[in-house]
Design brief:
Length: 198
């Protein structure tokens, strides 16, 4: 993971941990955001990411078990008919990951055409929940009723396209795992391609 992508990943982690929650900025701050142009309509995005490039909190050991399941190798969100089909492929068994969350995001938080889809597993019940976050006027979060399928190194789910803003040409993907108070993360985006030696 390149240095710039580590910084970007840390921003993603902040959102995943609630820094982008409703109370993170005043309504005046959210209302003061300039209007964003409508993103060009596209059929989605797919990206590839090298294995073994996780960003780890300083206190987390490199060999911590289960983290291969958030080490993204490919990620995609593509329109198939009236559904956005989201798929993550990792470098290991997703079922072994502690407290995983997978994210596909469009735009910056608080943009009217921005959104995040977060698939998270409750380790106490082993159930997955997909949450849609949008900012058309203010931050709104709502669960999406969908079946999340996990098969070894692949996680996928479908979301009705009508529930989302127009899909842009480029999307960002990420995954995190939490071990105690420490966090591991990986990201994948064609906006910020991996640099050799990063």
């Amino acid at each position: 993971m390149s240095k710039i992508r580590v910084v970007l990943a840390s921003g993603l982690l902040a959102c995943l941990l609630g820094a982008c929650a409703s109370g993170s900025g005043s309504e005046d701050q959210q209302a003061s955001q300039p209007p964003s142009p409508t993103p060009p309509s596209s059929t989605g995005d797919t990206c590839s990411d090298p294995a073994n490039d996780l960003a780890l909190d300083p206190g987390m050991e490199t060999g911590t078990g289960g983290l291969e399941g958030i080490d993204l190798t490919t990620a995609s969100a593509t329109l198939e008919g009236d559904q956005l089909v989201v798929r993550f492929v990792t470098n290991g068994d997703i079922a072994a990951v502690p407290s995983p969350t997978f994210v596909v995001a469009q735009g910056d938080p608080f943009g009217p055409f921005s959104f995040e889809l977060r698939a998270s597993r409750d380790d106490t019940t082993s159930t997955w929940t997909v949450t849609l976050i949008t900012w058309s006027q203010r931050e709104e979060r709502r669960p999406i009723p969908t079946d999340t399928t996990v098969a070894a190194d692949t996680l996928s789910f479908r979301v009705p396209a009508e529930s989302l803003p127009p899909i842009a040409n480029y999307l960002s993907f990420g995954a995190t795992a939490k071990v105690g108070d420490e966090l591991a993360a990986d990201d994948c985006s064609n906006l910020f391609p991996t640099t050799t030696g990063g």
